[in-house]
From TrEMBL:
Pathway: Isoprenoid biosynthesis; isopentenyl diphosphate biosynthesis via mevalonate pathway; isopentenyl diphosphate from (R)-mevalonate: step 3/3
Mvd1 C-terminal domain segment(s): 198-375
PANTHER family the UniProt entry points to: DIPHOSPHOMEVALONATE DECARBOXYLASE
Class of this enzyme: lyase
GO cellular component, one term: cytosol
Domain called Diphosphomevalonate decarboxylase-like N-terminal: residue spans: 13-184
Name under which the protein is recorded: Diphosphomevalonate decarboxylase
The family this protein is said to belong to: Belongs to the diphosphomevalonate decarboxylase family.
Gene3D superfamilies membership: 3.30.230.10, GHMP kinase, C-terminal domain (3.30.70.890)
EC number: 4.1.1.33
Keywords per UniProt: ATP-binding, Lipid biosynthesis, Lipid metabolism, Lyase, Nucleotide-binding, Steroid biosynthesis, Steroid metabolism, Sterol biosynthesis, Sterol metabolism
Catalysed conversion reaction: (R)-5-diphosphomevalonate + ATP = isopentenyl diphosphate + ADP + phosphate + CO2
Length: 391
């Protein structure tokens, strides 16, 4: 009788927010970037994808993926590349040890859940692909390191390769045509600089803007500023950023983070036709951060923006009262502050119009911190009979 056993493994994986931005592909098929990047992994207590991967001869003969209870298309080249690479690694284990079950030949059933709204524009593809790759690697019992797996996750979504690690992570662009050296490495673990906090201001966006995948392609094709960014600006920022993280030098970390965000969004404006990710609310957040830093007489808060209007503001715990306190004063009773001991602060000198724009435009806040990489869990999203568990 055929083995009807259901094999399964589960993991959670974090979101990461870049402080040196990835923007531009030199090879869209392999998802190879035009520059290296650095990110901070955020705590999974607030933002994570939980994924269970299962396989069995009893499953219908096709791979499936359920995200927050809705079926996703897995036929796209990116998901297929991840499946193919992971199966190939499993298959070579099976070839070396014929006693292993032939999991590489079985259909995959993947069930995923985000603990945050997928539509909020919060780097869900990074956590999503990192969790998918890590869960399948666990299922297949692959001996691969996080860096090995980052090479696979990168093909799902570039930024996902950095979510295989916790703490402070670099994605080295690499130079080989096959992408084998375009991988993520740890710059420092979360424990090295555990006092890093991130406040996310979720801006109510009416419609989705240009996706990062297509946005960066148009930038590469049309922006001249982009050339300079990839060749001169980013290499300089990479060096400064890695040193700032190693030395826990927030002033430099913050300055480079803000200049990076500004440089990336300049290349978006220099794209033809131009791409606008920042809106009035984003600019109000920049203004308030500038005012906080001016009042402090040094950089204690740093903003950054990805391919959308949400602001992420980094600061250290010792300045939480000022940075988060001022913003809490501005934003009042929004969802997301609950359970945190943040006292409202009024430092004066904060632009009143910017505060008003923030009040009207921010729909929710997420106060979080630097966190760990993927965590294996026994908590499964698939029942023993192989069916997805209903929430
Ligand atoms: C602005 O990783 O979403 O967030 O590789 O096409 O999936 P694809 O792009 P994606 O781009 C992220 C761009 C960014 C900057 C960053 O995270 O480094």
């Amino acid at each position: 009788m055929a083995d009807k056993k259901i094999y399964q493994a589960s993991t959670t994986a974090p979101v990461n927010i870049a402080v040196v931005k990835y923007w531009g592909k030199r090879d869209p098929k392999l998802n190879l970037p035009t520059n290296s990047s650095v990110s901070v992994t955020l705590s999974q207590a607030d933002l994570r994808t939980h994924t269970t991967a299962a396989c069995s001869t009893s499953f219908n003969n096709e791979d499936t993926l359920l995200l927050n209870s809705s079926p996703q298309d897995v036929t796209g080249a990116r998901t297929q590349a991840c499946f193919r690479e992971l199966r190939a690694l499993r298959s070579s284990l099976e070839a070396a040890d014929p006693s292993l079950p032939k999991l590489s030949t079985l259909p995959l059933r993947i069930v995923s859940e985000n603990n945050f709204p997928t539509a909020a524009g919060l780097a869900s593809s990074a956590a999503g692909f990192a969790a998918l790759v890590r869960a399948i690697a666990n299922l297949y019992e692959l001996p691969s390191s996080p860096t090995d797996l980052s090479r696979i996750a990168r093909q799902g979504s570039g930024s996902a390769c950095r979510s295989l690690f916790g703490g402070y992570v670099a994605w080295q662009m690499g130079s080989k045509a096959d992408g084998s050296d375009s991988v993520a490495v740890e710059v420092a673990p979360a424990s090295h600089w555990p006092t890093m906090r991130a406040l996310i201001l979720v801006v109510s966006a009416e419609k989705k803007g240009v996706s990062s995948t297509s946005g960066m392609q148009i930038t590469v094709a049309t922006s001249e500023l982009f050339q300079r960014r990839a060749e001169i600006v980013v290499p300089k920022h990479m060096e400064l950023m890695e040193k700032a993280i190693k030395e826990k030098d927030f002033a430099t970390f913050g300055k480079v983070t803000m200049m990076e965000s500004n440089s990336f969004h300049s290349t978006c404006l220099d794209t033809y036709p131009p791409i606008f990710y920042l809106n009035d609310v984003s600019r109000a957040a920049i203004r308030v951060v500038e005012d906080i830093n001016k009042k402090a007489g040094k950089i204690i808060a740093a903003y950054t923006f990805d391919a959308g209007p949400n602001a992420v503001i980094y600061f250290e715990e010792e300045n939480a009262d000022v940075v988060a306190g001022v913003l809490k004063g501005a934003l009042g009773s929004l969802e997301g502050w609950h359970g945190r001991e943040i006292k409202v602060q009024d430092i004066g000198e904060v632009d009143a119009r910017a505060v008003q724009v923030l009040k009207e435009g921010v729909s929710r806040v997420i106060l979080t911190s630097v966190g760990e990489g993927p965590i294996r869990t026994e908590e499964s999203l698939i029942a023993e009979n192989g069916e997805p568990l209903q929430k």
